[in-house]
Amino acid sequence: RLCGVALFLSQLYVLSGRVGSLMTTKHSQPQSTFAKSLISTSTNTPYLKAAESTEIPPYVTKCPSNGLCSRLPPDCMTCNTNYSCVYGKPATFDCKVKPHVHCVDQNNHEQENFTINMTCQFCWQLATTDYVCTNSTNCMTVSCPRQRYNATCTVRDHVHCLGNRVFPKMLYCNWTGGYKWSTALALSITLGGFGADRFYLGQWREGLGKLFSFGGLGIWTLIDMLLIGVGYVGPADGSLYI
Questions:
Q1: pLDDT at 70 over 80
Q2: Could you tell me if residue 10 is inside a domain?
Q3: Backbone phi and psi for residue 162, each to the nearest 5 degrees, phi listed first
Q4: Which residues touch 241 (CB under 8 Å, ≥6 apart)?
Q5: pTM higher than the cut 0.90
Q6: Tell me, what's the pLDDT at 131?
Q7: Could you tell me if residue 2 is inside a domain?
Q8: Which residues, 6 or more positions from 223, have their beta carbon under 8 angstroms from its beta carbon?
Q9: Is residue 29 part of a domain?
Q10: Which site among 38, 101, 161, 198 is 20 to 30 Å from 84 CA-CA?
Q11: Where would you find the membrane-spanning parts of this chain (predicted)?
Q12: Between helices 181-191 and 219-229, what is the axis angle to 10°?
């Protein structure tokens, strides 16, 4: 009997242990689910903050508010460009304003979709007055042949064109250091025998040579008058006359 009672108690102990483990598992499942929800919430927090961001894009500063949509700068709109248009001919493009940009039509009604008329040509094919390029002061403007330099050009805000609005281009050296052609010619005529014209242009060696040779006995003076008059002799820094 004692053995039977002991066997019964051991089985009861094992059964109670299984029931306890099942209860622990059931209670731990909601806790793990809650932990997962916390993890997912913390993971999605940056996404929610990014979605709620109200930062204004930098292009908005170039876009006049409540103006005509057709007169907005190209940076304020997105257009469906038609590259099959005929070069040099008028073309019509469907455009849409970018976010945070407000414009109106001819009747002062706010609109988002509109059309613009422009000439079918790429930006690098525009006239020189339609874009602005960087200048270089490291090249000679009076060299033969004339030197070129790599410039970066940007289309003006009110001009519409196809392709990239910022493009590279080879340009002739055309910078100036502030020297006047009229002043150089006047010095060559009046004080050329003393090298004043060469001194003015920054050519000190030639100026000293003319000074101590009395203008090459007048021959050098006459030659410089002719060369400065036709623009062949220019400033020593390689710039253009004003």
A1: yes
A2: no
A3: -95, 150
A4: 176, 179, 180, 181, 184, 231, 234, 235
A5: no
A6: 94
A7: no
A8: 216
A9: no
A10: 101
A11: 211-233
A12: 160
Both tokens of 240, joined, read: 């253009």
* CA dist., res. 97 & res. 116, Å (int): 12
* Tens-place pLDDT, residues 113-146: 998 888 999 999 999 899 999 887 777 776 667 7
Q: Does any domain span residue 159? A: yes
Count of domains in the chain?
3
Q: Which domain holds residue 207?
A: 181-230
pLDDT > 90: what percent of the chain? Answer: 20
